[in-house]
Amino acid sequence: MISFLSGTLAESSASCCVIDVSGVGYEAQIPLSTFEKLPQPGEKVRLHTYMQVREDAITLFGFSTSEEKQLFLKLIEVSGVGGKLALNVLSTMPVSTFSAAIASGDVKAISRISGIGKRTAERLIVDLKGKIDLAGGAAGGAVLPVSDAANDAALALEQLGFKRDAVTKVLNQLLAETPPEEQTSEKLLRAAIMKLKF
Length: 198
Hints:
By secondary structure, this protein is of the alpha+beta class. It contains 9 helices and 5 strands; from the N terminus they run βββαββαααααααα. The radius of gyration is 18 Å and the shape is flat.
């Protein structure tokens, strides 16, 4: 079993990458969240990996964090969820947001993920509730409340380069301070940027 790869990034796309490890190119399927964190080709890279062995194929999956890998492993344990669908989950939602949606039983939020309908979302909630960390791997950490405005603001802040833990902490603080009618993604984003910069 290949637990991780450490080498030079040879090439990458939104769904896979090739890592040169001592002259051997390993191709790994990756979620969009991992692709966004990859360095430029020719630079050093390290990915957590999971090797799936089947009669007709051997597939290597790569992840930028151990939390993403652990969630992936929990997802593929659910009946009807394969590697491709598990990658869709990771490409669509941060680990903490998906975990919070599972904990709160938010079928609507989970159903928005490509390839997941209402029935699959309900099955994921039943099978995963209580089995995954709400903080994306860090017990007792902060969890972003599930709301469209908060989720949109969180994704935008992470794309701007802010750390997920800091984003979650600031947004939780803003949600507690801001009246519900003023909790739009635009207002949360602006206020969060001001807090994160200073």
